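Students often ask why inverse folding is considered easier than folding. One informal answer: many sequences map to the same fold, so there is more than one right answer. In these notes we will look at a single instance of the problem. The structure comes first.
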């Protein structure tokens, strides 16, 4: 028989699974919760009773529709409780800072964006993030002291063991622990993850992979990274660096990558490299936005370069698909909306993945655009705020 501590760990895991399902799907009946989690109705009933008593879920007055449209009394639905207080999401990109204040259901109450150089000075970036968080909390009429949790996105691999960004990616962040530093400034717990993971979380809860239990989110921007959702949950790996496909080697004698290796995927297919390849053929300065516009207009040169890059990225993704067998690949970042890039990735997955694996996976553009990482940071803060203290 399991020990008391083992039973409590199991019960805590079941609570997390139930809350995660409600966070993803919205209000559900007890029967739907049992189907969605795989738990028995008796177990669900006990968990719901405990969570209602703890104020984490409520029974809604909107009873919804009968299951599968049948007749009879519609079921009472269980929903996440809004709770008191707020959470903050912080998205630190290489050249931007976005901060959002949200209630504990993830509904954004206020947000602001500013342009900054995040890479060169981590201390200054964290100072500005803290100031922005306090500013929007007060502007929204909320006492900053009522912020329960902060979720923060960083644009680099984040080592969960050391709580630091991997050295070599962000020059101005050496020896900084981002979560500890921001928590010290705000006096609130801070949880940190990388941009690809939080983009994956956002698209899974509110975007293109919503409803898919197994998904890969690929951010194609200044670098290339992937966030992985398995069994409906974000998969970070042993140290938090699962999904770093940008550092898959595609050429032994290739260019030196910022990670220190040679010939990494992002040295040949990330946005800066593609812009550099295209720029000599165009009189106007090229940006990722302009390249997407030219792609949509059918520009032959842009379409060729993006299609080739898509096939290169897709070759790495095909290997990942063979290992993970996802339902959907979601393409985000500054170039993720490119049709030519998407077509190249699709072609490579079809060519290199196992036929059944390739048939099972859709390749789609992200729905949340450049707000994905901010939405993911808010979702991370909401999820952590619901965990027992």
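Output (designed amino acids):
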């Amino acid at each position: 028989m399991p020990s008391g501590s083992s039973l409590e760990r199991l019960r805590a895991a079941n609570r997390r699974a139930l809350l995660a399902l409600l966070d993803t799907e919205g209000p559900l009946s007890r029967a739907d919760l049992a189907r969605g989690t795989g738990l028995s109705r008796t177990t669900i009933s006990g968990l719901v009773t405990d969570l209602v008593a703890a104020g984490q879920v409520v029974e809604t007055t909107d009873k919804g529709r009968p299951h599968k449209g049948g007749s009879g009394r519609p079921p009472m639905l269980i929903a996440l409780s809004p709770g008191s207080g707020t959470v903050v999401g912080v998205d630190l990109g290489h050249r931007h800072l976005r901060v959002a204040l949200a209630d504990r259901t993830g509904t954004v109450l206020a947000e602001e964006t500013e342009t900054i150089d995040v890479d060169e000075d981590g201390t200054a970036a964290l100072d500005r993030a803290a100031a922005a968080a306090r500013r929007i909390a007060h502007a929204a009429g909320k006492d900053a002291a009522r912020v329960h949790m902060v979720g923060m996105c960083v644009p680099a691999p984040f080592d969960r063991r050391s709580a630091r960004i991997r050295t070599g990616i962000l020059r101005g962040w050496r020896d900084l622990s981002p979560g500890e530093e921001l928590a010290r400034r705000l006096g609130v717990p801070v949880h940190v993850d990388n941009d690809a993971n939080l983009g994956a979380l956002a698209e899974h809860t509110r975007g293109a992979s919503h409803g898919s239990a197994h998904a890969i989110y690929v951010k194609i921007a200044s670098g290339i990274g992937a966030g992985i959702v398995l069994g409906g949950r974000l998969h970070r790996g042993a140290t938090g660096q699962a999904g770093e496909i940008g550092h898959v080697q595609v050429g032994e004698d290739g260019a030196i990558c910022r990670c220190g290796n040679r010939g990494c995927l992002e040295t040949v297919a990330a946005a800066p490299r593609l812009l550099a390849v295209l720029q000599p053929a165009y009189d106007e300065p090229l940006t990722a936005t302009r390249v997407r516009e030219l792609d949509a207009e059918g520009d032959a040169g842009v379409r060729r370069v993006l299609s080739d890059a898509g096939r290169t990225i897709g070759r790495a993704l095909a290997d990942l698909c063979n290992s993970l067998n996802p339902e959907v690949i979601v393409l985000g970042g500054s170039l993720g909306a490119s049709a030519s890039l998407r077509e190249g990735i699709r072609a490579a997955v079809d060519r290199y993945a196992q036929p059944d694996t390739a048939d099972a996976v859709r390749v789609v553009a992200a729905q949340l655009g450049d707000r994905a990482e901010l939405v993911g940071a808010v979702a991370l803060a909401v999820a952590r705020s619901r965990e027992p203290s």
